[in-house]
């Protein structure tokens, strides 16, 4: 996929990846083998009929294609941009797995002809770019005024459902409920809906207008949004249960995790949650046009190896940092960030120091961070994650000068709702305990996404939201019997 030139994009917050045009999308769709056993569908947490929408693209039936996606996914433009396709649908694509076992004769002939025609025989194992095709259809629909199902005579008023939080879990659940004829009301604590999609992901990876567009489509389907309502304070779960037939908690994981080392309270040490919220939601990059300032020095050090760390380090460069360094305690191949985001960060000049972890932050007399004391690590025994646990190398301490430090080592669910809801069972990290269908310990209360699992991916949260919506529908119907 084409990308914005590095020399230009490093100075703006505009989207980096530029998407496919119609010709590119059709050519890519023609690479699909049309497997008899489509593993890609099994790899999609919301179960989109991927072969069918790819076939529609191949045939030039773009409106049909997006409508096939909308049957299962209310946020295709978002998913086409930020889902980790390489480990989900694309990760199990028969082309990537070695296609011979599942390839039909017709499919084999088509792919062989295509590869030969475009001299791509050496790339036969590259999976179909399912995410790029999904994004193409979503953007095509927006450009041509194609919209999903809208509220109308089919809305049967089957029941009312309150959804807490407006991140991907609740958005997906609301879309599924609306399609089934239920009235869904989403309560959001912040002034703008979108949850982690809006406050956690920079515009250069997920533009704000894309979030607005897909939320607008949900509104057109009849989903109601109420902002500036903090559930657990403004209203309780019990109060919601008195007004709605069921409640879904999709409040995400917005509480930052810190390391508990010396110097974390110094000025200039941010959690990634605060740093990205200031930039994305509060538009600190436009200060003083906006009211939220952010201080960024010449050298920024980010701790972590996930997508949030990549986002933070790349934002720092766009805010004017001369050097942006990522410290990660494991090796490069063990980084949880998406491969393309690591490559984008490298292209933009982010420096990586692997097998390195901070031991304390060093400040000046005015209480501002000025350096990070680090220690080198080496792979140790294999731990529960299946990876070698990094262990410190004695005597390897060293110091890196830093004006700003961003800690991006994870997030946990906010404890507000569990502490204000009697009888709601929680786990070790205050995550809400829910079964596979989202049922919690309280009748009529369901939960899903990061609020139950801790920080994960957008599409996994959406999958949990869809499963919970189906269970909610069954629950409400059961209550009427």
TrEMBL record:
Residues 160-465 form the FAD/NAD(P)-binding domain. GO terms for molecular function: iron-sulfur cluster binding; oxidoreductase activity. InterPro entries: DPD_II (IPR028261), FAD/NAD-bd_sf (IPR036188), FAD/NAD-binding_dom (IPR023753), Helical_ferredxn (IPR009051), SudA-like (IPR006004). Residues 9-145 form the Dihydroprymidine dehydrogenase domain. PANTHER family: GLUTAMATE SYNTHASE [NADPH] SMALL CHAIN, GLUTAMATE SYNTHASE [NADPH] SMALL CHAIN-RELATED. This is Dihydropyrimidine dehydrogenase subunit A.
């Amino acid at each position: 996929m084409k990308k914005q030139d590095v020399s230009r994009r490093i100075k703006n917050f505009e989207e980096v990846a530029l998407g496919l045009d119609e010709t590119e999308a059709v050519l890519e769709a023609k690479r699909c083998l049309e497997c008899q056993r489509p593993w890609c569908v099994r790899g999609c947490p919301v179960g989109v009929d991927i072969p069918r929408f790819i076939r529609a693209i191949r045939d030039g039936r773009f409106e049909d294609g997006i409508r096939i996606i909308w049957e299962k996914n209310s946020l295709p433009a978002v998913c086409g941009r930020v889902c980790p396709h390489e480990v989900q649908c694309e990760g199990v694509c028969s082309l990537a797995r070695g296609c011979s076992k599942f390839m039909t004769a017709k499919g084999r002939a088509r792919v062989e002809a295509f590869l030969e025609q475009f001299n791509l025989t050496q790339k036969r194992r590259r999976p179909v770019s399912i995410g790029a095709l999904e994004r193409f259809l979503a953007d095509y629909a927006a450009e041509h005024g194609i919209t999903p199902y809208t509220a109308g005579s089919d809305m049967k008023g089957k029941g009312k459902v309150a959804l807490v939080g407006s991140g991907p879990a609740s958005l997906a659940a609301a879309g599924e409920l609306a399609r089934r004829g239920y009235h869904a009301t989403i309560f959001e604590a912040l002034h703008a809906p979108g949850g982690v999609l809006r406050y956690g992901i920079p515009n250069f990876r997920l533009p704000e207008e894309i979030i607005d567009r897909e939320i607008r489509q949900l509104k057109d389907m009849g989903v109601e949004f109420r902002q500036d309502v903090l559930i657990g304070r403004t209203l309780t779960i019990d109060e919601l249960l008195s007004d709605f037939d069921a409640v879904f908690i999709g409040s995400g994981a917005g509480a930052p995790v810190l390391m508990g080392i010396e110097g974390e309270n110094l000025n200039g040490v941010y959690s990634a949650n605060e740093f990205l919220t200031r930039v994305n939601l509060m538009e600190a990059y436009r200060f003083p046009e906006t009211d939220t300032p952010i201080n960024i020095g010449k050298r920024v050090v980010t701790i972590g190896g996930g997508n949030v760390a990549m986002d933070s380090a790349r934002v720092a460069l766009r805010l004017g940092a001369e050097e942006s360094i990522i410290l990660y305690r494991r090796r490069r191949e063990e980084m949880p960030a998406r491969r393309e985001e690591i490559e984008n960060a490298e292209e933009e000049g982010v420096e990586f120091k692997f097998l390195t972890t901070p031991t304390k932050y060093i400040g000046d007399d005015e209480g501002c961070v000025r350096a990070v004391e680090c220690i080198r690590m080496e792979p140790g025994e294999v731990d529960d994650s299946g990876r070698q646990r990094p262990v410190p190398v004695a005597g390897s301490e060293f110091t890196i000068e830093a004006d700003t430090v961003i800690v991006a080592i994870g997030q946990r669910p906010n404890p507000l709702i569990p502490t204000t809801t009697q009888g709601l069972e929680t786990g070790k990290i205050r995550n809400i305990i829910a079964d596979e269908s989202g049922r919690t310990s309280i009748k009529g209360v369901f939960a899903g996404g990061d609020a139950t699992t801790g920080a994960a991916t957008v599409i996994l949260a959406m999958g949990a939201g869809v499963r919970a919506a189906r269970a909610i529908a069954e629950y409400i119907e059961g209550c009427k019997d």
